[in-house]
Amino acid sequence: MPFKRFHNDARKTVLLAWDNAKRLGADQVGSEHLLLAMLDADDNVARRVLERHGLTYDTAYDLIRRMGAGPELDAQALEAIGIDLEAVRDKLEAVFGKGVLDTPRPRGRRRSFGHDARKTLELSLRESIALRSNAISTGHILLGLIRADDGAARVLRQAGIDPQALREEITAAL
After folding, report:
1. Rounded to an integer, what distance in angstroms lies between the CA atom of residue 79 and that of residue 94?
2. For residue range 101-129, what is the model confidence (pLDDT) as tens digits?
3. N or C: more exposed end of the chain, with fewer CB within 10 A?
4. What pTM was computed for the model?
5. Which structural domain range is residue 133 located in?
């Protein structure tokens, strides 16, 4: 997809998606990394709308980390012997930074856009055309993300956000 149609905020979102995928140890950039990038970027229309619905970067990051954390230790078994797994993770992240316990990507492997991220970006172009916009903005990426209904849409639902209400609000903002 040619990025010349992307507004500066959307270009920055795509670049930040790479950083977020790396931070989470993902081999591919997914739609959830695009969602994080919108919340990670400077002020943009998608971030403002998402934050009005109560979704912050930290909340989304934690939801995504938990969704893709892989096999986890049995938290109940650890709790039975007096270990609060979430408290340990929170303390380590407070001292060493977000994602300190996330599995790093093996060296030498290239990160690429996964199917759901490519689908989201393609749908953002379609949303931009449907709204007769000259460029793709973060708002269009968010609309594409909602329409794709994959990993990032699952994060939105877990955060208690109604995708249809979000769609209506972002469309009005554009």
Report:
1. 21
2. 665 545 555 568 888 899 999 999 999 99
3. N
4. 0.74
5. 3-69+112-173
